[in-house]
DNA sequence: TCTGAAAATTGTGCCCT
DNA sequence: AGGGCACAATTTTCAGA
């Protein structure tokens, strides 16, 4: 369903989606029309979910990443629904996972500095009934990519 | 330096960068030329870092996210350098943070299923001298966005 | 399914306000 | 700064091989 040419196209588009179809076609050794049709198909199939601009976190003054481990007091569907609504409404919270093991939820939060995290923390504990919160601060981002591996798809 | 019109432009582009300049200009109540000039400036200033295609993790068969906490045996610059090289070379590892506190590094890894994580784990422990590894599996992604908050920039 | 070219749309620069 | 207009480039469609 996805051959090596599609993978080549996706590899390029995951890095840079500003290239013209003609330039992209060149790189994958195709001419523009077939390349364009493949891109169209990848979009229709939802393989390409969206195209977005990635902004510079430092320049937006949100250079500090905080990982927040949360344990809930109530394991109910209602609590989960409320939890989703609350984290959805906090723009500093950019990722939320429900985890296996002793940590119930893990959040990734971006803020200008460690002190600014306090506002997000207070908002979480005031809007939600939480059993335990543990926050770890990232000192340095060593790798950060939106590029997913294409090795497992066929 | 970044006014509310720039923020409006960035808000749209963080969601969808496929819009034409004319359409984007419409949405921020500007005509195309000044809108285009603002976009140009945001790119030159590096506020807009890049434009990429975001792919569907499920459809690429990497629907399982693993959070890996690593403690190192050696706190040396050489070890860190080697560590960066190794994680850089593993496409399943998409984020790596150096943390404060008792966890030295945190990795975000994407794989098709929990069993497939074993390959990444073995690669990590074979290529690096590691004191302790603790892996947690995400059962569900409740929120995941590349949209950074624009509330802290001026 | 590819190539090549035409038609439609969009990006880019110039000049004016 | 913003707006209007003209031209360049690119996307998208459509013919033929």
From TrEMBL, chains A, B:
CDD domains: HTH_ARSR
Top-rank lineage group of the source organism: Bacteria
Domain HTH asnC-type residue range list: 2-65
Keywords, ordered alphabetically: DNA-binding, Transcription, Transcription regulation
Any Pfam family the entry gives: AsnC_trans_reg
SMART domains per the UniProt record, alphabetical: HTH_ASNC
InterPro entries the UniProt entry points to: ArsR-like_HTH, AsnC-type_HTH_dom, Dimeric_a/b-barrel, Tscrpt_reg_AsnC-like, Tscrpt_reg_AsnC/Lrp_C, WH-like_DNA-bd_sf, WH_DNA-bd_sf
Molecular function per GO: sequence-specific DNA binding
Gene Ontology biological-process annotations: regulation of DNA-templated transcription; response to amino acid
GO CC field: cytosol
Statement: the UniProt record of this protein carries the keyword Acetylation: no
Name of the protein in question: Lrp/AsnC family transcriptional regulator
Species this chain originates from: Paraburkholderia caledonica
Lineage: Bacteria, Pseudomonadati, Pseudomonadota, Betaproteobacteria, Burkholderiales
